[in-house]
Every structure is written in C-alpha cells, then in structure tokens.
Amino acid sequence: MTSRRNLQEVPMGDDNRPTPTRTVTSLAVSAACGLVFGFAIEKGKVYEPAVVKNQMLLSQFIMMKMFLSGIISGMFVLAVMSMLPFTRRQYLGAKSVFVRGLREKGFLTTLSGGALLGSGMAIAGSCPGVILAQLGSGTQNSMYTLLGALFGTLLYGILEPVVTDLTKPAQTIRFQFLYNVYGSPFFVMALPSAAVLSLVVFTLELAYPWEEEINITDSVYQSSSWITSPAWPPFVSGIAVGSLQIPVVLVIGDTLGASSSFCTITSQFFLHKSSKRLSPYLLKFQSGIDNWWQVAFVLSSIFGAFLSSILSGTYGSVAGVSIVQSFVGGALILFGARMAGGCTSGHGLSGIGLLNLLSISTMAAMFVGGVLTAMILQWIS
C-alpha cells in the first residue's frame, strides 16, 4: 500500500510540456549557469590535471574542499526548497527526474561505473564537468580528453544493452534515499549532514591551507578584484557551483549534471536511419529541451572558463597529460559515468545533495578507483 508520505512526494498536475517560451527560457538559464560554472571551476583550479591527480594521490585537497563545498551549498538549498510551499513542487519534480535516470541502475552498476570514472579521472586529470572548462582555459591536450570522452560515450551507447543485462539489479531497490531508510523528511537529515560536511571542509582547510596548496603569489586576498584574481578559495568556488541548483531546479526542472550532454552530442551521429539501430540508448538523448539544456550548459562553461583565464592572465598556462593519457582517461571517464548513471556533477553535487544511496556508492567507488589508479601510475613511473 502506498504511504501518505509517498503520495505527498509525488508532484501532480504539473505541466512541463516544452512550449517555445519554456524552451528559450531553459536554454538561456542553462547558458547563464554554464557561464558561472566554467568561471568558478577555473577560479577554483579544479580543472587543472595536476590538481585532480594530486587529489587522487591524497597529496593535495583543493578538489575535495571545492567538491564538498558544492555538495554542502547544493544540499542546503535543496533542503530549503523542499520545505518552502512555493518551491516544494519544483523540488519534487526535479527529484523525480533524477530518480528516472537511475531506473535500471543497481549498486553493482554504480560501483563498477564509479570505479571506471575514478580511474579515468586519475589518468586524464579531468572529469565530465570540467573537460570543456579545460578546453576553454587552454589546458594542454584537453581536446584529446574531449575526443576520448566522446568515444567512451559512443562505446557505452553501443554496449549499453549488454552492460545493463549484466549489472541490472534483480529487483527494484527498496530505498533510493538515505532518509527513506530512517523514515524522516529530507531536510531533517540534509541540514545536519551539510553541517557535518562543513566541519570536514573547515578541518581540511586548517590542515591544508588553500593558498599554500596552490602556491600562487597573487590570490584573491591580495588582488584588487575577485574577477581578475587567478584563484578563489575552493569553498567560495564550491558554494558558487552548488548554488546553481536554485535556477536549475526552479526554471529547468532538473538538477545539475554534465555527462548526459555527451550522450546528446554523440547521438547526433545517429541521425541516418541505417545507423539508428546501433544504439537505441543514445537515441533517447537526441532531441528535446530536457536533453539539450545540458549541452547549452557545458558549451557555455567553455566561455566561462575562457573568460576567467583571460581576465586573470592564466590562459594556456596549465600543463596537461600526454595525448594517450588524455584520450584513454577521457574514454574511461564517460564510459564509467554513463554506466553509473551520472558523474561528479550528477551523482556528486546533485545525488549526494539529495542523499541518494546510489550516488553515495558511485562517489565512494570513484575515489577508491581513482586513488588506486593514481598510486599504480605513480609506482609505474
């Protein structure tokens, strides 16, 4: 029997048909959010391959502090939206969209996909949300990471039926969210969780001051302008990124994510009738504003990162990894992200922000896979 609480969590009568006005508005908001995202990613320095790799080696914590800060701010605003009567419907609608994307996923799928995602991140020094930001900032060999990511998306799109058959859970997961396990409202667990994670970020900052980790001579504290400063504190960049959940949920009716955009882009190669049978999975991403808003988001992040790097005078100054590492890592990143049903943005910022258990397992596996791969690569070299 359906409980009263479950009935209350299902948005009813909400008309989200893609009218021309809604389409234009969604694309405009997506582009604006992407601009802010790319700008904040560049200022936070988590687009630098060395920062990603050093995080996986546990020798630098810039990425972790920004990642957790993004989760904290996103979790907080999602909790507030779930409580307010005039935003609760939008919150429930966005949560419903998120859950639909995980319909055929189980813990075996997310753990395996997360491990591949983390391994690719350690190899390429990137992730789906920052690949195009790397491109915009002129990071060396970032184009090959992008090509690898598109190849990984294509490969997963073709192999998806096999992967799904091998990893699909035998029965539907009983509890999607951590708060379901305890029978409490979302905000009751989300707000204390955000507070605990804030203490983790504070502790990491005390142990590893961000300016010492980045080792720059002109930080935001010495610069006359935040816009032209070469770096922001990771918690500031993280808060800026996590706060983007507000316009994405309220206007677009979704949550932050990036890896689905690669499916939409790759699916355009299957426009001819004779090629459509190769990947029914990718065809689902081919059209519609629900798919294209992420494309507008990630493409706009290129310009955001470009603008930030130009204003701070850092464009083209970041070294990348080798061409082979860029391509192979990019392929693993997107294959793993699509297998898991999300990436560091979708599962990390949004999924953990919603206290989704599959997202938590994905991110745990991502860090385990990334740390092990980084250590193996260090040992080999």
List the helices and strands and how they pair.
Blueprint: H1 4-8, H2 20-44, H3 49-56, H4 62-83, H5 88-100, H6 107-124, H7 128-136, H8 142-167, H9 178-182, H10 186-207, H11 210-214, H12 234-242, H13 245-252, H14 259-267, H15 273-276, H16 280-283, H17 289-312, H18 323-340, H19 344-352, H20 357-380
Helix pairs in contact: 2-7, 2-12, 2-13, 2-17, 3-6, 3-20, 4-5, 4-10, 4-12, 4-19, 5-13, 6-18, 6-20, 7-8, 7-17, 8-14, 8-18, 14-17, 19-20
Q: Keywords for this structure?
A:
single chain; 381 residues; mainly alpha; globular
Short overview:
With 381 residues, the chain is an all-alpha fold. It has helices at residues 4-8, 20-44, 49-56, 62-83, 88-100, 107-124, 128-136, 142-167, 178-182, 186-207, 210-214, 234-242, 245-252, 259-267, 273-276, 280-283, 289-312, 323-340, 344-352, 357-380. Helix 2 (20-44) packs antiparallel against helix 12 (234-242).
